[in-house]
């Protein structure tokens, strides 16, 4: 068929003049929504606008696909069980460079642009940092013009919506698809079949070779749903491909003909369950069969999809690893190692050694956590019942692997047991991190400290075996969403001075360093922050009914609620400050608003009680007439990408106070710093590198180091001694224990306080005094507005390292060996042939 798509470029639905945009918008309202302005709802308008923008993305998307097809380029496949994308509309406008124009168009039509943007339900297909990292990475891949696909699951219900009732977290299902999703295109023609359960059989093939056949108990279909991912002001539009599970037929005719109508429908329901809901556990393994099925489901669909592409491009199977670089985002997709082996061995009849070489050269693995409770292991019986053939393959991989270890470490039986893919201590488990390590050519942590600790601790034995596999790739975040889109006033202040080259090359922000000494610039900087705080204060009032003073310091801790992140340490300091203010009203401290946000896993009772602790302390302090104009405590409900976009620009202080050695990297810390917040933090995760970049004098450091934490634990940690010897700490704990923050109910926080007094696994008591002292330093610093603003500017302009563009460049050079493929738009210049 005719290849020339040039005529589409000036089409009503693609042209970028304001007139054509308006016309396109009204056409879409009429022809897609079936509405006329008199009857249209806000959602109709949002959808009409979204389709108008999507129409204008399609030419890049189709051109990108054509270019990749014709160049046969090496492609990065990012496999992730989570993609926390956030709303698409605003981001697409920014990346196309038409944000301002579209705003004008919408306003000229008499509509409220902000309202339409706010109408989009964010696709919350992730828990926290790991899922959001995947989203930042696919943004950077497109911006750097790297051929790439994100592969994941199209959960029908994303991360639950949090409401706060009587101070407690309540969960509501996230029905993000209820009003339709204009950004995705289903591709049923590329559906894949996935087998599950059943058993294996041996048979002899026509050449007399013994082979294995998997006889599954059920088959489900994976339907790909594609979403275009634009680069920032490039022609590239890559693809996020998410799989939805369906039953192969709407009726199982065999069952139906037996008269079992309900049984047939039942099978349909079970199949659809696989992609139904995101597991809301962050850093906690669930061990549920459905979770393993989800992981295998999307991995199998994705690998088969790659094989499909290989076939249509006529690339021989032996070059699979040259065509594709597949990144495993933590162990959630690690079953891919066994699945690619199975596909090659059983379905393509490749020899073991060749299959293994292809597999190892294809995969690379990113570890995201040192927490033992997050390391995925599957009980053997469960694994065997879902993936019987994969278990056999894993046993074979293990047996060959352990032979290699035996040669290298002759007679070291303990080491063999530690390295084995099977945990044999008591109940037997498949260790997914070990499978990922063995099946990959590169293994990386997500911040320098984390990568070092991996080598010393969790993956020590693998490091000693294969030191050459280990890398560090410090995380990053995309400045498109986290600066331009969320903080437009700061972005234009910056661009007014140094142009907009910084958006693709964040290190250019350093050109602004001298401006920290310019009083006029500092005033403008402060005014931007102040306006963002006013806007956020209004948002808080609308959401919680709490009035906060934009003059006060906005001190944020937003992230998943977890003991290791120590939101309760923050609360202990608040109580200590409250006490001191009651005792000494003349204490010279600046007014401060302590803000918290984050979700607790629904089954994590301690985390839920930490939320109740925050809201309870807030209730007392916010009502106390002596104090409420000096400090306030606010829990911002339902922290997600959308609320994050309002929070980071409004922050003065960023709380990054995890126990050293526990937070792999953190990425919120980077978003705060980029937006001019100062950090109070421990030497943990990427905090270490943030402090290095912004300068120790512009960072509030406290607490034990990872080495000191380790040594203290080894020498015996006795939290009770801190309570007995530190009267301030004792007062704080006693207030909690006495019921001062629970309307006299001494039991409400008993579990929390007893846990701290007797175990305190995250060393709050050991770090308490250092934290309180450091907070005093923060307060003093805030009183000197000029100096604070200087530090704020230096934080932002020295955060260039933390662009995800830098992370992705390093992955491309060091792990993926992937090169940019600039996209020629079809119908422009010469036609690709
Ligand atoms: O990954 C982020 C890091 O910045 C954070 O420090 C780290 O905590 C986070 C099981 C996880 N690690 N592990 C998870 C998420 C969901 C799940 O089911 C584990 N998340 C992290 C990005 O590197």
Helix content: 40-55%
CATH architecture of the largest domain: 3-Layer(aba) Sandwich
Bound molecules: ligand B1N
Secondary structure class reads: alpha/beta
Instruction: Determine the CATH topology of the largest domain.
Output: Rossmann fold
CA radius of gyration: 28 Å
Mean pLDDT: 96
Apparent shape? globular
Percent strand equals: 5-15%
Largest sheet: 10 strands, mixed
Number of helices: 33
Descriptive overview:
- The chain has about 850 residues and is of the alpha/beta class.
- It folds into 2 domains: about 75-85 and about 120-475, Glycogen Phosphorylase B (Rossmann fold), CATH 3.40.50; about 480-705 and about 765-800, Rossmann fold (3-Layer(aba) Sandwich).
- Helices cover about 45% and strands about 15% of the residues.
- The chain contains 33 helices and 25 strands.
- Strands 1, 4, 7, 8, 11, 12, 13, 14, 18 and 19 form a 10-stranded mixed β-sheet that branches. It has a 6-stranded parallel β-sheet with strand order 22-21-20-23-24-25, with helices on both faces.
- Helix 26 links the parallel strand 24 (about 680) and strand 25.
- The longest helix is centred in the N-terminal third of the chain and has 30 residues, at about 40-70.
- The protein is globular, with a radius of gyration of 28 Å.
- The model has no long low-confidence stretch (mean pLDDT about 95).
- Bound molecules: ligand B1N.
């Amino acid at each position: 068929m005719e290849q020339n798509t040039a005529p589409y470029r000036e089409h009503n639905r693609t042209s970028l003049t304001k007139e054509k945009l308006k016309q396109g918008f009204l056409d879409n309202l009429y022809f897609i929504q079936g509405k006329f302005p008199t009857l249209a709802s806000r959602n109709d308008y949002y959808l009409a606008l979204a389709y108008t923008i999507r129409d204008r993305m399609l030419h890049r998307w189709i051109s990108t696909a054509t270019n990749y097809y014709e160049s046969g380029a090496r492609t990065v496949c990012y496999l992730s069980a989570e993609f926390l994308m956030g709303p698409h509309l605003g981001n697409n406008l920014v990346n196309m460079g038409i944000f301002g124009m579209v705003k004008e168009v919408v306003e000229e039509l008499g509509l409220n642009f902000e309202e339409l943007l706010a109408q989009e339900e964010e696709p919350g297909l992730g828990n926290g940092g790991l899922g959001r990292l995947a989203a930042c990475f696919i943004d950077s891949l497109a911006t750097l013009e790297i051929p790439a696909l994100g592969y994941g699951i199209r959960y029908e219900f994303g991360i639950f919506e949090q409401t706060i009732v009587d101070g407690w977290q309540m969960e509501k299902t996230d029905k993000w698809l209820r009003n339709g999703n204009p950004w995705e295109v289903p591709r049923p023609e590329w559906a894949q079949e996935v087998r599950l359960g059943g058993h294996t059989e041996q048979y002899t093939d026509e050449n007399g070779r013994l082979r294995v056949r998997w006889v599954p108990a059920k088959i489900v279909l994976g339907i790909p749903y594609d979403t275009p991912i634009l680069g920032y002001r490039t022609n590239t539009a890559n693809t996020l491909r998410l799989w939805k599970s369906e039953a192969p037929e709407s009726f199982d005719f065999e069952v139906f003909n037996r008269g079992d109508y309900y049984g047939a429908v039942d099978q349909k329901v079970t199949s659809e369950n696989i992609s139904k809901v995101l597991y809301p556990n962050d850093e906690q393994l669930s061990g549920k069969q459905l979770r393993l099925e989800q992981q295998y489901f999307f991995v199998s669909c994705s690998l088969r999809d790659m094989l499909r592409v290989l076939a249509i491009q006529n690339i021989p199977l032996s070059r699979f690893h040259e065509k594709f670089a597949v990144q495993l985002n933590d162990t959630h997709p690690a079953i891919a190692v066994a699945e690619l082996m199975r596909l090659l061995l059983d379905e393509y009849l490749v020899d073991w050694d060749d299959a293994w070489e292809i597999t190892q050269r294809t995969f690379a693995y990113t570890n995201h956590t040192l927490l033992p409770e997050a390391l995925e292991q599957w009980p053997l019986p469960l694994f065997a019942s879902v993936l019987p053939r994969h278990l056999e393959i894993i046993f074979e991989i293990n047996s060959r692997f352990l032979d290699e270890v035996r040669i290298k470490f002759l007679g070291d039986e303990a080491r063999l047991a530690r390295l084995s893919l099977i945990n044999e201590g008591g109940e037997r488990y498949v260790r997914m991190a070990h499978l990922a390590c063995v099946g990959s050519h590169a293994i990386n942590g997500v911040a320098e400290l984390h990568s070092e600790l991996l080598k010393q601790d969790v993956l020590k034995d693998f490091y000693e075996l294969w030191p050459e596999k280990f890398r560090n790739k410090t995380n990053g975040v995309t400045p498109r969403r986290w600066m331009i889109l969320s903080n437009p006033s700061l972005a234009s202040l910056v661009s007014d001075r140094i142009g907009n080259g910084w958006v693709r090359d964040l290190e250019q922000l350093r050109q602004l360093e001298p401006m920290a000494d310019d009083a006029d610039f500092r005033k403008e900087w402060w005014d931007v922050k102040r306006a963002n705080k006013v806007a956020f204060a209004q948002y808080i009032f609308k959401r919680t009914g709490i009035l906060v003073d934009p003059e006060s310091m906005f001190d944020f801790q937003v992230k998943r609620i977890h003991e290791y992140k120590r939101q309760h340490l923050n609360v202990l300091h608040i109580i200590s400050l409250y006490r001191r203010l009651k005792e000494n009203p003349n204490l010279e401290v600046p007014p401060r608003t302590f803000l918290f946000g984050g979700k607790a896993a629904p089954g994590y009772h301690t985390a839920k009680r930490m939320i109740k602790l925050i809201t309870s302390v807030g209730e007392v302090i916010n009502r106390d007439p002596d104090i409420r104009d000096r400090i306030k405590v606010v829990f911002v409900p339902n922290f997600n990408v959308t609320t994050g976009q309002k929070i980071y620009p409004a922050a003065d202080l960023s709380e990054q106070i995890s126990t050293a050695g526990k937070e792999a990297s953190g990425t919120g810390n980077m978003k705060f710093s980029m937006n001019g917040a100062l950090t109070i933090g421990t030497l943990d995760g990427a905090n270490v590198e943030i402090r290095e970049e912004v300068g120790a004098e512009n960072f509030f450091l406290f607490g034990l180091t990872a080495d000191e934490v380790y040594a203290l634990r080894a020498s015996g940690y006795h939290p009770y001694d801190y309570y007995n010897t530190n009267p301030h700490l004792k007062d704080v704990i006693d207030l909690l224990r006495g019921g001062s923050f629970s309307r006299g109910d001494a039991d409400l926080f008993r579990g929390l306080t007893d846990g701290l007094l007797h175990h305190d696994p995250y060393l709050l008591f050991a770090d308490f005094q250092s934290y309180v002292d450091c907070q005093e330093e923060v307060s003093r610093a805030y009183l000197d507005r000029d100096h604070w603003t200087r530090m704020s500017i230096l934080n932002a302009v020295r955060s260039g390292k933390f662009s995800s563009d830098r992370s992705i460049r390093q992955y491309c050079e060091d792990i993926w060996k992937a090169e940019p493929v600039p996209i020629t738009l079809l119908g422009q210049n010469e036609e690709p042939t």
